[in-house]
């Protein structure tokens, strides 16, 4: 069921379920106001792929729009979907050429209806209806939702294409991985070859350093041997001196023993002498 809408009755209509909201929008208008406005539906326009749709906007207060600059603009790209000026259709986006029409029957009543044929999923989105006259620039936004009832159907060729693309992508990933792995192995081999080439030089240097250290060690050993020989020589001399000292001590002890013996003899002789003196003294006293 369809109902007519707009400033005045026109030959294009809206679905019955949109009537209530549209009437509410009309009741909010101020017909007596001198300020021009663009009024649009506050709910989205729905359609399925391949259908024709009409995007509704109108002027408030109602005014003849045939001499105005009217533009329908796709919001996401800011591209011109349809451009009308002074009775002529001007430039527009390439993808909308031959598919849009500004309905002229309602222009005199202020209806700015845009007819779009054969809508597609890419047509979904917001559209701005803009009007410019001597009084200034006004606009309103209309949302279009396009559904594809066959989007859930999976075609065999799409499945095959997805499988092929998946296999190609997996093959590409494997090839890249193998290539990087081979490049890393090649790099490692080059590093190893460089190390092997430098290894003889390093070994020669190490051998030279070892021989140098060995020569120094031999020199230190020779010096140590000389020091040991000198120590043994000094030790031999010390032993000889010790032996001589022992001999001297033995001779001293021998002489000391003889001296003690001689002393004892002297002590005995002194005692005999005292005895003889005492006897002489007694003999003298007797006489």
Automatic annotation (TrEMBL):
Residue runs in coiled coils: 207-262
UniProt key word 4Fe-4S: no
BP terms from Gene Ontology: regulation of leukocyte cell-cell adhesion; regulation of T cell activation
CC terms in the record's Gene Ontology section: membrane
Annotated transmembrane regions: 157-178
Domain Ig-like: 31-147
Subcellular location: Membrane
PROSITE patterns, A to Z: IG_LIKE (PS50835)
Pfam family name, one: V-set
Keywords: Coiled coil, Disulfide bond, Glycoprotein, Immunoglobulin domain, Membrane, Signal, Transmembrane, Transmembrane helix
Protein known as: Myelin oligodendrocyte glycoprotein
Species, as recorded: Gallus gallus
């Amino acid at each position: 069921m369809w109902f007519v809408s707009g400033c005045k009755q026109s030959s294009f209509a809206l679905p019955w379920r949109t009537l209530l909201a549209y009437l509410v929008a009309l009741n909010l208008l101020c017909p007596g106001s001198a300020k021009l406005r663009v009024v649009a539906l506050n709910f989205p326009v729905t359609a399925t792929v391949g259908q024709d749709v009409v995007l509704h906007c109108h002027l408030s207060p109602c005014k003849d729009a045939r001499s105005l600059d009217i533009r329908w603009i796709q919001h996401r790209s800011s591209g011109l979907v349809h451009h009308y000026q002074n009775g002529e259709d001007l430039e527009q986006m390439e993808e909308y050429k031959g598919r849009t029409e500004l309905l002229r029957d309602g222009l005199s009543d202020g209806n700015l209806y845009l007819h779009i044929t054969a809508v597609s999923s890419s047509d979904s989105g917001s559209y701005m209806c803009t009007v410019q006259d001597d009084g200034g620039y006004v606009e309103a936004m209309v949302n279009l939702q396009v559904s594809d009832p066959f989007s859930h159907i999976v075609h065999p060729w799409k499945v095959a294409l997805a499988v092929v693309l998946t296999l190609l992508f997996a093959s590409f990933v494997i090839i890249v991985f193998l290539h990087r792995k081979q490049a890393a192995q090649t790099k490692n081999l080059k590093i190893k070859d460089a190390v092997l080439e430098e290894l003889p030089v390093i070994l020669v240097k190490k051998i030279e350093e070892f021989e140098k250290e060995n020569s120094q060690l031999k020199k230190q050993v020779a010096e140590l041997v000389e020091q040991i020989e000198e120590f043994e020589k000094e030790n031999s001399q010390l032993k000889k001196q010790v032996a001589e000292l022992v001999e001297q001590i033995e001779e001293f002890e021998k002489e000391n023993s003889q001296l003690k013996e001689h002393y004892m003899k002297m002590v005995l002789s002194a005692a005999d002498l005292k005895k003889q003196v005492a006897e002489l003294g007694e003999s003298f006293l007797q006489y």
